[in-house]
Design a protein that fits this description.
Elements: H1 2-23, H2 28-44, H3 48-55, H4 57-60, H5 63-81, H6 85-112
Helix pairs in contact: 2-5, 5-6
Amino acid sequence: MDYVKAFVVGGLICALIQILMDNTKLMPGRIMVLLVVTGSILGAIGIYQPFAEWAGAGATVPLLGFGNSLWKGVWKSMGEDGFLGIFKGGFTASAVGISGALIFGYLGSVIFKPKMKS
């Protein structure tokens, strides 16, 4: 049942974002920034973490979850390092995910040898 819940929640988030993309003139990059910032704000006010625990990967995989993990890293680092934690916390919290994305993206490009469109 956890898989179904994650699939439905992730699908709903993606559907809402697709509606936003279709009905506004916002560029995809701005929508991505909006999602990360929204996830950070929802995490800061304490709404996103209980939602993510309930929804599982359906809430943590989209960019909203990335924003929430950035916020958690900043909050933890601020407690340990004070003001410097504002700048340091997001990097330490998201380093593994970003590194994994870069490594697997590189491996995929080596295996499948992508070519430029002409």
